[in-house]
């Protein structure tokens, strides 16, 4: 299995809120990028096929790619899903459970700034038409800086709420902001999630860690040349990745700022 580009999108919109705009592509750009994927001879496969291969199952096609979307923006229902449907492409949507609107009510709360998010009816419809629905925690917290019951609620509680809503097991998880730690990954696995995606801006591979799958984040300013390199298996390293001293230091800094009451904030850096 060659390097596998697992593309990470957030919002696909013409008019996103300022906070998510750097992580948003327009519908026109999204269509063009799907064309580039096809023109490169890549076959878009469901994430579960990559996960099965990483767990020792059947190998992927030689030129596989995966599409993933984080957070649960309403534009996935109105814009992304119709485009994927017309092209017959699979995708995984990771929803921040606390940001999803219940029938006739308000969401229970997340750390994401205000934006138009999906409701549970829409999530159920997407699930019914074949979009894989995964979990993205309860509130979009930095999981490697929270502990005890709070972390359990984010990992275990969000899984229960998601499964209650869609009526069947959910097995795919994505770390908010891409942040995890060995302890977080152990808890995610113990909760019954069989895969988890990070970011790392690296390709996945046959030897990638199924609890820390590498992805390539598509941003509003991702140049066409970079995207073309990704579709050709160039321009980035291949996972699995080992934690660097920088990663450990950055985690320690974020834990310290949270401890002193000034946590590192800002938009999601999945």
Automatic annotation (TrEMBL):
<keyword id="KW-0732">Signal</keyword>
<dbReference type="InterPro" id="IPR002509">
    <property type="entry name" value="NODB_dom"/>
</dbReference>
<feature type="domain" description="NodB homology">
    <location>
        <begin position="63"/>
        <end position="270"/>
    </location>
</feature>
<protein>
    <submittedName>
        <fullName>Polysaccharide deacetylase family protein</fullName>
    </submittedName>
</protein>
<dbReference type="InterPro" id="IPR011330">
    <property type="entry name" value="Glyco_hydro/deAcase_b/a-brl"/>
</dbReference>
<dbReference type="InterPro" id="IPR051398">
    <property type="entry name" value="Polysacch_Deacetylase"/>
</dbReference>
<dbReference type="Pfam" id="PF01522">
    <property type="entry name" value="Polysacc_deac_1"/>
</dbReference>
